[in-house]
Amino acid sequence: QILIIKTRIAALEKAGFILPQQLKDAVEKGQSIVAVIKSASQYEEAKDSIEAFGELAYELNDWVPKLGQLQRLNKMTKLINQEIGKREKELKRVKSLALKLKVDVNTELAEAETSLADARTAFNELKTKDFSDEDPMDVVQTLIIDQLDAVDGTLANVQALTSLKSSYSRLYAILKNYETRIKRLEAKKEDKTEVRALLSEAYDHLVELKGYANKKLVAEDAELIFEELSALNSVVEQLNDLLQINLLSPLEKEILR
Known about the structure:
9 helices; single chain; 81% helix; mainly alpha; elongated
């Protein structure tokens, strides 16, 4: 076990990870204890060392799966960097588009920019972060993937705002697809009352958007449209969960692998 841990530590440090000195000290201590146990000719000589090793084993055992996760994380760094880079390019494109079309979504884009910067910072700190009290994959989910999801939602809404008629058609097609799924499940005698209520709520938001799509927009409309898009996206996420529609990103699939 100690040899496995030491090998993993060496591989991770070679890849640029900085691991807690407490862990490395525990490994060295463990090796010293094992050496004493092996050299003892009688049980009495090794008794204290065996007890000490038993206590140390609890600490080291906690790190075995965690080091395995860090090795997985090391293989994922290229993908994580690519996913963040995609959003950085998309944010620049959407900001230019909003400026060109004179759509005032500065507050929303500033929030997206902050979330993206936070994700980039978290990524840059992955190899130097102390994971003693945290699960590496939980950190990636919370500090990177959740932030990217927030950015995706904002960029999608801004994109929809800048081309409302085509966005309305796309969203209408999505809701019709949900309706088809629900009918299929109801035909199997499944109770889909809750899902039906959500679908009805989604259609209500879509009707509001259709009203904006068929009129000449004024500056004040942007905020109201954005609110409707955000509310509709929230309902769509709930429908995806209830209908078990898998929309995981490549990064989320890798974490759950």
